[in-house]
Fold these 4 entries.
Entry 1:
Amino acid sequence: MSDLETFRQHKDRFFELDPHSPLSEEQKGSFQGLDYYPEAPELRFVVRAEPFKEQSEVQIQTSTGDVGAYLKYGRIAFEVDGQPAELTVFIGKDGNPFVPFADQTSGNETYGAGRYLEPEALGEEKFLVDFNLAYNPWCAYSSHYSCPLPPAENRLQVPIRAGEKAFPK
């Protein structure tokens, strides 16, 4: 079993059994696991971020109309099926990198409001960006959550067929 398969099994178990799961008790009763794309090694990148000259705090709109504060850190560039793509990396209040994004699968194959990535900082402005770990925000499972929405600059014109698919409601 691959590391990704093990990770997905643990996540499914958390969603089904943990009291901190975003699923309601009713949803847990019929839960059969999250729906994932097959592992896509070609959507796993080590990239160098291009930090912004001025890293300012920005407000990102949430699914409930609130806003959240993030540091706008820099841009990462990569290719998907030969097409160039770029995303902005934000830094959350916890100090961790955060990439909310939408792509050409959003609203069809994946959650309409977009998905999230948490790239791994490798030092020297490098990040491990693994779209196989792209996940739905908790508002995809329940309206009780307020989730940051991907800003316009993180709306990709390419499909990212990796990570979690849409959750049926």
Entry 2:
Amino acid sequence: MEKDFDGKVVLITGSARGLGAETARIFASRGASLFLVDVLADRLEQTRAELAATGAPCQAMVADISQRANCQAAVAAAVKAYGRLDVLCNVAAALRFGRVTDVPEADWSIIMAVNLSAPFWFSQAAIPHLLETNGNIVNVASQAAQIGCAYIVPYSASKGGLLMMTKSMAMEYMKAGIRINAVAPGTMKTEIGEGVHRPDDLDVELMVRYSGVRPPSEAKEVAELIVFTASDRASAIHGACLSADGGVTAG
């Protein structure tokens, strides 16, 4: 395995399980030093221990990233631990299902805080360090940022905002050495939906429209795209959104 991230430091949010953990595994196999952030303490420690056992430098921080101060503290802790920061991967996400008229304020608030505000606060804190290393940011958006998706309106709105935040930040730093991009997965085999209530009376025909014809992708497939986007091989990619949705947004 090529060690093209040897000497580089990668901070990954939502890295206790699912897509974040798969992303961490690939970065570790390619030589990166990792700083993992998640709110799930037990699962985070399992992932950290698993990667550390392979010899990868790996530290972790339990944090509720819905709070700006915690996002800032995580970036500061990563830089303190390793002395630099090369890649920020905003992977963490919150998802809820329900009709527009039934969405509670608490659900709207947590989805916006985790999916949109946290990537902004992490980026705000990380950019000064990334400018020093000519590093980059990879935000995980969604096919729901590009097409209308019934019954997940807050999620879709947050991911649409994340996509435009990515492009706008990329424009602001067009003359700098850093790169800022997004990856937009479709349906994946991950735990993001675990414990999420889905009302039985939702119109399945409307949900099938954005479920896709092809089977859900494996998290590792999307993680490979995230790592590629963060690598020097993607040096010409800036302000882009790379889709990995099995063709759902193709037409």
Entry 3:
Amino acid sequence: MTYDPYLERFWVMVGDYDGEPRIGVLDQDLQRVTWVVKGMQAARTAQVIVEPDSLLYGTNSDVERNAIVRLDKRTGALTRLRDVEGSSLFATSFGSSPPAWKRAR
């Protein structure tokens, strides 16, 4: 679970196989999760980086090629930014300038 200061809510990441992998946002009352992405390995992650309009994360799959993925918080659209060699279990960001993929837009 990761706190989103822009939405003032928590993001929840669960599941491994079949329809299990999901990314959802927990309502402020902590009673309901709205699943934004579900049922695909592209939603299988352990940790996310929260941006104002998106989540960035590495996938954690042992059945598909792993990647760095961008999830648009408004639409739920996934963008595969770059394939990677192995599973991503952690995520972090540092520095003050926007990442290269954001500057290129």
Entry 4:
Amino acid sequence: MLAKRIIPCLDVKNGMTVKGVNFVNIREVGDAVELGAEYARQGADELVFLDITASHEGRKTFVDLVKRIALNLNIPFTVGGGISDISDIEALLSAGADKVSINSAAIRNPNLIDQMAKNFGSQFVVVAIDAREENNTWTAYVNGGRIPTEKELFTWAKEAEARGAGEILFTSMNHDGTKNGFACNALAKLSESLSIPVIASGGAGNMEHFEEVFTKGKADAGLAASIFHYKEITVPQLKNYLNEKGINVRF
């Protein structure tokens, strides 16, 4: 069985790492370069960088900041935010990104997934889906969770996979920042319906939540931000705990 991955996430706004609850009430938590380097030292399996206001503000990702973070990393590095075409992706890969995450751009132009997979390979393509559950339906949102779309989570994830996505990064907007646990039922359904890895995001509050997301939620990776940024738990503590629970993790 493949090892489960632990992935700290840097949500960046105006060059600083920030965190909110349910995609609002954003506040600064630290320097992105320093945090990225620290998580690499701690043994994180990967790092995700999301420029959370780039799409909404209609601008490109901070490529220079991506470069500075990448220089301090020895782990896979995924970057997303403000991407609209192949040239943006080329710039990020040149800056040191190992994978590129697309969200709003993929929904607005699904052919971009096909183009990315064809030009760079599926292993480079992460399709992120921010979705909110209302009336038993998971609706995908764009522009950093600001605008609902006609895309339904499970249908859209299947389409993304068919177009060449290598991974799905699913963030539950209902759970984001609440620290009440991941959306395990939706994650399990997603994992069972896809043949590509699913990264769980939104709701991590303690180590038990990660155990639950890997067992009940059937996720391939668990992503979190605030619990790592505020040092509520460290990556080594979490991996030791999961190992004791019989969950395969890399040391």
